[in-house]
Amino acid sequence: MSEKYMWVTCRTRMKRKCQNYESRLPDNTAVKQQQLPAFRLQLTASEILSGFFAIGLFCLGMGIILLLSAKSIKEVEINYTEKCATCAKLREEATNFDKECNCSISFYLPQKMEGNVYLYYKLYGFYQNLYRYILSRSNIQLVGADVKDVRNCAPFRTSDNGLPIAPCGAIANSMFNDTIVLWYNFNSSTHIRVPMVRTETAWWTDKYVKFQNPAFQNLSSAFAGTAKPPNWPKPVYELDENDPGNNGFINDDFIVWMRTAAFPNFKKLYRRLHRIGNFTEGLPAGSYSFIINYNFPVSRFQGQKAVVLSTLTWSGGSSLFLALTYVEP
Amino acid sequence: MFRRSLNRFCAGEEKRVGTRTVFVGNHPVSETEAYIAQKFCDNRIISSKYTLWNFLPKNLFEQFRRIANFYFLIIFLIQVTVDTPTSPITSGLPLFFVITVTAIKQGYEDWLRHRADNEVNKSTVYIIENAKRVKKESEKIKVGDIVEVQADETFPCDLILLSSCTVDGTCYVTTASLDGESNCKTHYAVRDTIELRTVESIDNLRAAIECEQPQPDLYKFVGRINIYSNSIEAVARSLGPENLLLKGATLKNTKKIYGVAVYTGMETKMALNYQGKSQKRSAVEKSINAFLIVYLFILLTKAAICTTLKYVWQSTPHNDEPWYNQKTQKERETWKVLKMFTDFLSFMVLFNFIIPVSMYVTVEMQKFLGSFFISWDNDFYDEEINEGALVNTSDLNEELGQNREELFLRALCLCHTVEVKPNDTVDGVTESSELTYMSSSPDEIALVKGAKKYGFTFVGVQNGYMRVENQRKEIEEYELLHTLNFDAVRRRMSVIVKTQTGDILLFCKGADSAVFPRVQNHEIDLIKVHVEHNAMEGYRTLCIAFKEIAPDDYERVNRQLIEAKMALQDREEKMEKVFDEIETDMHLIGATAVEDKLQDQAAETIEALHAAGLKVWVLTGDKMETAKSTCYACRLFQTNTELLELTTKTIEESERKEDRLHELLTEYRKKLLHEFPKSTRSLKKAWTEHQEYGLIIDGSTLSLILNSSQDSGSNNYKSIFLQICMKCTAVLCCRMAPLQKAQIVRMVKNLKGSPITLSIGDGANDVSMILESHVGIGIKGKEGRQASRNSDYAVPKFKHLKKLLLAHGHLYYVRIAHLVQYFFYKNLCFILPQFLYQFFCGFSQQPLYDAAYLTMYNICFTSLPILAYSLLEQHINIDTLTSDPRLYMKISGNAMLQLGPFLYWTFLAAFEGTVFFFGTYFLFQTTSLDENGKVYGNWTFGTIIFTILVFTVTLKLALDTRFWTWINHLVIWGSLAFYVFFSFFWGGIIWPFLKQQRMYFVFAQMLSSVSVWLTIILLIFVSLSPEMLRIVLRSVRRRSTRNPNLELPMLLSYKHIDSGYR
Questions:
Q1: Where is the P-type ATPase A domain (chain B) (predicted)?
Q2: Which of B471, B534, B692, B907 is 20 to 30 Å from the Cα of B616, by its Cα?
């Protein structure tokens, strides 16, 4: 306490000199005073509810449209795991890889499938989304930059004799290699092979940018010094010998397979209907059969295989889920 | 920290005891005495923490001592060492960013400190050596050197003033950098050295200074100078703080001075005062830590679940190693337990985003930037002192919104008007005049001004004479012989003056209780009536007495006084004893009364705080009657408040004090318990409905209650007392010593439910209380700056407390609470789909989102909107907040961070995460999302979810934002636009540095599908619907409760405060 009294302070003259008379009033700006002009959002129940109903109405409309378009979609799925039991049995042993096995499945299409028809294969219980599996690929190799770059491809980097595998990695090695051919049984004696297009099933950017063959005149020489993946019956440059634009790394089937699926049950696009002759309108109603060259083993991991024929609308496949959820609110 | 290093550097602990002897100019005082050079530390100031060499290790060590940083470091190290699904960059980059920013900030601050140190240490000073002025660097000053300081220079170390260029050996000093007081103070040289104004003469001075070892109190100094002139016996003079020039202070209006260094370098009072204040932690921070533990638990559970299920799933061989995904040789050879452990770590890393680094960055930024709004607020500007509010800490902003239970305050009273009773005498004027116009006590200014009004003008002090102009415009001169300073124990002060006629008079001024026993009895009665009457009306009263001292007596008194002043040990006790002897047998002259005018709008402020559900305690040193009337004046007590008194008056009636106390305590408790049955859960409600009680307790009774704790069953007293306190609307504690105030704060802090305390005060005696409580607020009053220097926040006026708490406090709390909840919410939303995905990918730790998204989510896509929200949001208008204090109750008790809201946010996040995942999952069950039949892979799946996620959490914030400034618009829509832009960009190029081109055109391809668009819109809508429903329900409920609200009594004074406030 006592210090107060001891420190006799300056006389007024001095005081004026000592003190700083600059005003320290804070700036009167909107930001500093928290007075920024602002829209005060006051959501009332009626506003929210009317917004709610507006969105609900929109959803209902969308849902009805989606439902109607989903109704027009025709889809046929044929699971051939059971139907080709003998082939499945054969493929359970890895040693039988060189033995051919064909399997025929007949079915009847009660209504014609109009417009573009797409052929999918579907796998059940195949985990394309395993962590190590997804990593096991070499993009440098696939983009054609260095065919011998197999760094990230473990455990399918090199063949037994030490050559780098092209295309390396678990994804490429496990490529789906059944051949599926659809026959139209016009009548009991006439069987017409349904014309299918094998290209334009992959993303455009994948086919023309992300996947590139190594630059060589001759494709087979481009892959000289590499080995085929152990599960493949033939090397990558023989995937489609008829069409150089669909051979090697830029083979559509290969690219489609390389885009790993999100779930263990997945479909992948296999062929598109070539709309000529009898099939200009789509697939006519009638009797059909699939001839399947059964190569891909699924019973080893207790999986299943199916073929799917489907038409599509502007919103894609039969998105009954989307339609229903849209109708719901 | 400082102390410790100091001790290592300089003297050991044992040297601190006792005194130090300093030889002026380092000359031995006499040839016979051997000159023993004592070792003192040099004048180098080291305030920096780091050197160039130890910066990196030391800084990193300090940063990783924080739990959060350490956690992220561990995660990062796991990512580097163990083969994990996410790249180390995803957590390393944000951590690196945080650490680097902090390190740069701290490095820069340290560099500034280095520079400031260097500036101080290398600055040139002039030292007198061998009768010459020698130029030296400041750090070379040794204890005992004579230093010359010129006008406007700062003192390089603590100096004892020897002489100045003025005749009377005074100099003016401003200590603005030390304690913030910008006015000039006068310091004196010892009388015997005043004449030494030249280099030669000062060099010839042979003297030794004995003084205490350095101690941090700026206002205390005890020393003695022994001057040996011409081999006559040494002359001893006492030295006090008025002779000491502190390092850091600046010389003003004096050309130059000579001084001798007594404390140097780290031993100066400035350096000793330089120490960090203890960290106060806010309730919000504690909640964050609690949530952190919950989320850490969730994280560990998730990782454990996934690891367990992974091994359950892998127990079937075709799942463990299907032909298409064979193990590498290394994997097969790894020991299974180790594998399990690394799997566990990998899962932890995969889910670690649930506890985001960026939250800490955002919270820090919010606090730092947000605190500017307080110091920027124009409403806190006060013209009189030309200053606005001051924020000393930014860690507690939100705590201002949390003062639930108690609020302590003192010193409502700053005199603005003065009234002096006409029975004041001429002598009374002289008496008070000595105390100057610039005294730090407002009372004294009041008295001097009052005297002037009655015709006696204090002209000033000249050569030890005080000059007073009387009513006839004649100057009367009084020689000032001694000042017997005021202290809180004596509660009085005296001066001894010699009149022009040669009479020696003693005038004494003090509290009535301090003066009455010391005057002749018969004089008391008349004045006592006046005094008590005045005290009842809320005036601060002082009594004035005088006595004539015979010349012989004066000789004796003089000798005693000088002896006491010279004493090095126990000086204060000795002085007190002498004073006590002198101030006896006086004649009462009269009494003064000073009106304590309440500060502007004090009553309204108190009323508002009351209405806000705060419990107000008044702790004051004033006497009971004064304090009581103040409480009435500021409407703390209303006319219908029943007062319970626990004072010496009520207790001393009986012989056994303790018994009486016990009796009273139990009686009061009974009364209160009867009034508030135990079932009353909400005290706040009870207050409005029941009879109000006020408690008055004084210092001595309080110590009786607190100190009786040694006896058995004494604890009882304390607990009964606290029970009573909790039930009372207002508590008034009068006659409190500063330490008792802090004691009360501590007591209340430890109450059940640990209420949050806020102290506000303006005086040096409030400092201990301010430091003790959760939030300390200082008023930048007229009584010095100690309070505001030690406070967390300082405001110019008491009335500013209202806006500080009700508006700023409320807003900060809401903002940061929302920030914290939102952060945990958005990260749970983010990581839950990732967790669910593990069930579909064979628990293989496959990340759902691309690494870039994982990294950028918290840093870029969702950080700015919440930061803007947490800085700008005003869910209720500031004006409404200040005018309706009841709103404050809504957030009391950390309401927004309790279990309920936390569970709501957590469930909302869980719901949304599930909707995102399964909504998209069902979408993927359809044949094709593309009209051309092309199929999408796992990265598209993740990107769809991520897009929905970013939009949902941002729109959720938009729904919560009530105050849309252009900044909010910019950051919310900007963040979304940036996300879209970034995704196109990230997927648009084959990035040469990436091993995997996973995201190549994924985003663009995704947007080409109509189904995906529809899904995104639908799922955002579904995710937000619970939130919208909540808004609907709330507004419906609000409408239904609106009518009863109107019936609640409105506090009368608000209307006009509002108009007067702006």
A1: 121-248
A2: B534
Nearest to B325 among A94, A132, A272 (CB): A132
In the chain, the amino acid numbered B275 is Q
Q: Cβ contacts (< 8 Å) between B378 and chain A: which residues? A: 25-26, 28, 33
- Distance, in Å, from the CA atom of B193 to the CA atom of B208, rounded to the nearest integer, reads 13
pLDDT in tens, A103-132: 999 999 999 998 899 999 999 999 999 998
pLDDT bin (cut points 50, 70, 90) of residue B548 is: confident
pLDDT for the residue A267:
92
- Give Cβ neighbours of residue B625 (< 8 Å, ≥ 6 apart): B532, B535, B536
B937 vs chain A: nearest CA distance in angstroms?
4
Q: What is the pLDDT of residue B686?
A: 43
Res. A17: pLDDT tops 50? no
Among the residue ranges B11-20, B140-149, B334-343, B412-421, the one predicted with the least confidence is: B412-421
Is the minimum CB–CB distance between B935 and chain A shorter than 8 Å?
Answer: yes
Assigned token pair, A122 = 């579907």
Q: Using the structure block, give the residue that is written with the tokens 């400092």.
A: B767
Whether B924 sits inside 8 A of A262 (CB atoms) is yes
What does the alpha-carbon distance between residue B710 and residue B713 come to, in Å, rounded to a whole number?
A: 9
ipTM of the complex: 0.91
pLDDT of residue A289: 93
pLDDT band with cut points at 50, 70 and 90 for residue B16 = very low
CA angle B927, B932, B933 (to 5 degrees): 25
Q: Which amino acid is at B965?
A: T
- Cβ-Cβ contacts under 8 Å, A175 against chain B: none
CA distance B102 to chain A (A): 26
Nearest to A282 by CA among A194, A197, A202: A194
Point out the least confidently predicted range of A221-230, B460-469, B599-608: B460-469
For B779-808, the three-class secondary structure string (H helix, E strand, C coil) is ECCCCCCHHHHHCCEEECCCCHHHHHHHHH
Residue written as tokens 């004046």? B633
Query: Which of B752, B757, B608, B616 has its CA nearest to residue B283?
Result: B757
Minimal Cα–Cα distance from A176 to chain B, Å? 11
DSSP string of B806-843, one letter each residue: IIIIHHHHHHHHHHHHHHHHHHHHHHHHHHHHHTTTTT
Check A312 against B927: CB less than 8 A apart: yes
Q: In what order do the strands lie in the sheet with B693-698?
A: B390-391, B793-795, B775-779, B757-761, B406-409, B615-619, B730-734, B693-698, B642-646
Which of B657, B713, B645, B682 is CA-nearest to residue B889? B682
| Burial zone of A265 (CB within 10 Å; 0-12 exposed, 13-18 middle, 19+ buried) | middle
- pLDDT per position as a tens digit, B817-872: 899 899 999 999 999 999 999 999 999 889 999 988 988 898 889 989 999 999 99
